[in-house]
Amino acid sequence: MPIDWLVKYWGVAAPKTLPFLKNRKIAVQQVFGKQIIYRRHGDKGLPDKSGWIGINNIKEIKEWARLHTYSFHAHLLGDKDVWMVLDMDGRDEKLWDLTKLAAHELAKILTKHKIKYLVKFSGRQGFHFIWSLGKITPNWLSLRKQLRQLAGELEIVLQSKYADKFYQIIPKRNPIIVTSSTDKKFKRSILIDEQIIHKNGMIRSPYSIHPKTDLVSLPIKPTSILRFNKSSAQVERV
Questions:
Q1: How many CA atoms lie within 13 A of 136 on its CB side?
Q2: What CATH number is attached to the domain comprising 104?
């Protein structure tokens, strides 16, 4: 049976999400009871199981909504362009205010580099920064290197301006920013995950709902990052 509030939500949000889904391969997250299912392929009445899901109109979003779809994940490599993504994750509720501070400083760095980006709440403990690289043939290793360079710039800023604040929570001598999610010894540092930058990399689309929090992955103004409150990403408020 469809989830009434979810169908109603996507009836409103579908037009806002569609531009981020068209001309890209898509994966979906569906929720059945307490089980979250991540799917890249269709099923009966939808795109063939052997191929990726494709969504090119509002009707298709609404069809997936009736099948318990909370979140749409778009491929970084589209038919018309490639996305660069910086996925910032605080990984700890205690780091939330500091994650906002890090995102605020990252926004200023990207602006300094004249990068035109979208920033949005991830839906859980962090933020996503997304921008188009145009229609290129991506060198994923080179793009990871660029990500590490930006993360390095951010580390310098945070160390010089806010070290005392961060090291109240992060163990001293650990970096504030790390780029590898597999490095367990720095699990309390803020993560900007380079490992999502690859040939099948995907990112939650704006206005999707995080299935573990029921919060919307909401686009925000860079100047509002420090004032952002998770309550503003509740479905009924969005």
A1: 12
A2: 3.30.70.3300
- Whether 29 maps to a domain, the answer reads no
Going by C-alpha positions, the residue among 98, 90, 238 that lies closest to residue 165 is 98
Number of structural domains found in the chain: 1
Residue 8 CB contacts under 8 Å (≥ 6 apart), including other chains: none
Euclidean distance between CA atoms 169 and 189, whole angstroms: 9
Tell me if 159 sits within 8 A of 176, measured CB to CB. yes
* Residue 96 lies in domain: 83-196
What whole-number distance in Å separates Cα of residue 192 and Cα of residue 155?
11
* pLDDT value for 41: 79
Q: Which residue has the tokens 């531009």?
A: 19
**pLDDT tens-place string over residues 194-213:** 999 999 999 999 999 999 99
Secondary structure (3-state) at 209: strand
- Each residue's pLDDT tens digit, 21-80: 999 999 999 999 999 999 987 664 454 555 789 999 999 999 999 999 999 999 999 999
128: in domain: yes
Helix (H), strand (E), coil (C) string for 6-48: HHHHHHHHHHHHHHHCCCEEEEEEEEECCEEEEECECCCCCCC
Place of tokens 């991830």: 122
Place of tokens 């038919």: 79
List Cβ<8 Å contacts ≥24 apart for 177-181.
177/102, 177/151, 179/147, 179/148, 179/151
End-to-end CA distance of the chain: 24
